[in-house]
């Protein structure tokens, strides 16, 4: 959802470093890219397209100077074009700004600036910012004061970085509702939307809060509030290492992250103490409400099955973007569980802010220090490490691990913890046989529709399998509760339509098999995902993806999603799509 970077180096050339850092943010958007560096003038290179394409075309690192700002864009206002790419400048070209967020009142600001004679070049909301800064700088204010005045007029969300030809050696940053962190290296200073962007340079991070500004120059970093008062900020040393944000020999981040899942589960299992502690603090709760988007929403659905079937605690799962209609139904006895990989999803944060005064809130988040972790009452971290592929994989299984542990400690079902300990090995065995899934992907890559079916705990798995397919293969995929097939979608099953049936051993096994038969009777091709020893399933399906027979239905969602991720990944690769950067999507959605 746009990524921004800024750096001030100790006499090294900034553009190659900005390019390297902004590449790490490409998961946030890849419609266009641009870099600006100041000296006697502001130098800018930018264009639409993926970073490597633009770099090959214009040579992004070929810019002078030891400081600058950079941007990758996920278009909101204005189609992806060179002119709409950031950085944006004022009339004189002396001020350059990069921005992540949305300026809601940009039309009225633009009209008023135009009536004062400002000439706009792009269709973006962002361009009002350099023109506003210009307006104030021409009255004699410096860059910092002018940014502050400009931001006072802006409604909406932003993380920005601004530079001026008149004050080379300085970057002014600010945030409101969009993430922005500061990196303090050895005589070099950074700004970025996310920590992985700058991990090669420093792991000393300052997390900015809404309404804070930061001034970077050669002598250091100063954080201020909007009244201009200096704020002392804690420097956090983060444990993520630079190689965690590299492909490490894999073709794509997504397949690397799929293979990191056993480790992600293992590391998340080490959170047991924190979970026990939170369980002891939460106290009396008579209702659970999960709030999340995308893949995190599917993890939440598994949470509902667990809380209701194992503890009998009424549990809602609400899409964050729809939450406002339910907010009043939460009270002090409700535990609202926010699930978010990034901890920055705008819809999720908005929901959290709506209830945090009236209910208990727990955030399950992957990104250290992200906004949700600072605003929720309780926080649990998934220990998946940085996830770069746009389609969530290892963070999903880590979220599930966290939820299972939470339920196990609340219900004192230690047998669940024992079963979780087996998951990493069960996943590893499956990953060793991924060649079989690759062959299935080759067979079905031309399909135009896929259905995914499952009952009970396997229903959210079916939904998540369908989401993965849509996201990275652009094939229409629909997840259905297997028992609902007969109420509509069966009409769409024809000769050769692929149906992925998730059928782990357990209570729902036989009923799901009956649904498989219904599909076969209409000519559908069933890809069964179940126990490798399940003879009944094997005899009913075209293709079987077999997993460890010890995996029971309740625990199955954590491991059973892996073959579905692999199926989508290999179809995507077969179709020549880059699974790490699916069109129109971004990993971190910071607009509502
Ligand atoms: C985007 C991503 C998804 C993710 C969703 C929620 O749509 O592409 O992969 O599941 O946001 O993100 P969150 O960070 O809140 O889990």
Compact overview of the structure:
This protein is α/β, with parallel strands linked by helices. The chain has 3 domains: 3-244, 4-Layer Sandwich (Glutamine Phosphoribosylpyrophosphate, subunit 1, domain 1); 247-431, Glucose-6-phosphate isomerase like protein, domain 1 (Rossmann fold, 3-Layer(aba) Sandwich), CATH 3.40.50.10490; 433-577, Glucose-6-phosphate isomerase like protein, domain 1 (Rossmann fold). The protein is globular and about 80 Å long.
- The tally of structural domains comes to 3
The CATH architecture of the largest domain comes to 4-Layer Sandwich
Radius of gyration: 25 Å
Largest sheet: 8 strands, antiparallel
CATH topology assignment of the largest domain:
Glutamine Phosphoribosylpyrophosphate, subunit 1, domain 1
Overall description:
This protein has 592 residues and is of the alpha/beta class. It has 3 domains: 3-244, Glutamine Phosphoribosylpyrophosphate, subunit 1, domain 1 (4-Layer Sandwich), CATH 3.60.20.10; 247-431, Rossmann fold (3-Layer(aba) Sandwich), CATH 3.40.50.10490; 433-577, Glucose-6-phosphate isomerase like protein, domain 1 (Rossmann fold). The chain is 35% helix and 23% strand. The strands form 4 sheets. An 8-stranded antiparallel beta sheet has the order 3-2-4-1-10-9-11-14, covered by helices on one side. Strands 5-6-7-8-12-13 form a 6-stranded antiparallel beta sheet. Strand 5 (88-89) and strand 6 form a beta hairpin. The radius of gyration is 25 Å and the shape is globular. The relative contact order is 0.09. 6-O-phosphono-alpha-D-glucopyranose binds at residues 293-296, 340-342, 345, 348, 390-392, 585, 587-589.
């Amino acid at each position: 959802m746009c990524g921004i970077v800024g750096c001030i180096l100790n006499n090294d050339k900034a553009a190659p470093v900005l390019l390297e850092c902004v590449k790490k943010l490409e998961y946030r958007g890849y419609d266009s890219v641009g870099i600006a560096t100041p000296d006697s003038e502001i130098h800018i290179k930018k264009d639409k397209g993926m970073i490597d394409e633009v770099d090959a075309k214009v040579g992004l690192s070929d810019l002078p100077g030891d400081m600058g700002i950079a941007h990758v864009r996920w278009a909101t206002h204005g189609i992806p074009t060179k002119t709409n790419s950031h950085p944006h400048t004022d009339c004189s070209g002396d001020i350059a700004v990069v921005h992540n967020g949305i300026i809601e009142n940009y039309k009225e600001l633009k009209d008023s600036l135009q009536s004062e004679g400002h000439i706009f070049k792009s269709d973006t909301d962002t361009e009002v910012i350099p023109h506003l800064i210009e307006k104030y700088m021409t009255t004699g204010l410096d860059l910092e004061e002018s940014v502050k005045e400009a931001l006072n007029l802006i409604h909406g969300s932003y993380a920005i970085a601004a530079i001026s030809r008149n004050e080379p050696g300085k970057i002014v940053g600010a945030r409101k509702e969009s993430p922005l962190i500061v990196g303090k290296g050895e005589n070099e200073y950074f700004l970025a939307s996310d920590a992985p962007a700058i991990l090669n340079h420093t792991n000393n991070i300052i997390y900015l809060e809404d309404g804070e500004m930061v001034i970077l120059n050669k002598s250091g970093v100063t954080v201020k509030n909007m009244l201009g008062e200096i704020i002392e900020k804690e420097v956090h040393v983060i444990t993520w290492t630079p190689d965690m944000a590299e492909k490490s020999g894999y073709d794509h981040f997504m397949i690397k992250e799929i293979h990191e899942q056993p480790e992600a589960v293992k590391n998340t299992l080490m959170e047991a103490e924190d979970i026990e502690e939170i369980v002891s603090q939460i106290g009396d709760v008579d209702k659970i409400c999960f709030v999340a988007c995308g893949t995190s929403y599917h993890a939440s659905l598994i949470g509902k099955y667990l809380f209701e079937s194992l503890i009998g605690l009424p549990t809602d799962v609400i899409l964050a973007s729809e939450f406002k209609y339910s907010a009043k139904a939460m009270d002090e006895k409700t535990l609202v569980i926010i699930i978010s990989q990034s901890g920055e999803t705008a819809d999720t944060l908005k929901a959290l802010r709506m209830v945090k005064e009236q209910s208990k809130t727990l955030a399950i988040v992957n990104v250290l220090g992200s906004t949700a972790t600072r605003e929720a009452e309780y926080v649990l971290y998934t220990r998946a490490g940085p996830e770069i592929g746009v389609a969530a994989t290892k963070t999903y299984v880590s979220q599930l691990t966290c939820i299972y542990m939470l339920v196990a400690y609340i219900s004192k079902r230690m047998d669940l913890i024992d079963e979780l300990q087996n998951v990493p090995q069960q996943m590893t065995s499956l990953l060793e046989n991924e060649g079989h899934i690759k062959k299935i992907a080759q067979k079905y890559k031309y399909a135009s529709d896929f259905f995914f079916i499952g009952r009970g705990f396997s229903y959210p798995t079916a939904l998540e399998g369908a989401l993965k397919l849509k996201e990275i293969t652009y094939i229409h995929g629909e997840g259905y509760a297997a028992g609902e097939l007969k109420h509509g979608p069966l009409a769409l099953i024809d000769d050769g339509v692929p149906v992925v049936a998730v059928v782990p051993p357990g209570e729902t096994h036989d009923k799901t098999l009956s649904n498989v038969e219904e599909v076969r009777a209409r000519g559908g091709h069933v890809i069964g995902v179940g126990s490798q020893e399940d003879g009944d399933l094997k005899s009913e399906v075209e293709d079987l993806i077999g997993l460890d027979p010890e995996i029971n239905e309740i625990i199955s969602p954590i491991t059973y999603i892996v073959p579905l991720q692999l199926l989508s990944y290999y179809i995507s690769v077969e179709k020549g799509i880059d699974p790490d950067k699916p069109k129109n999507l971004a990993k971190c959605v910071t607009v509502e």
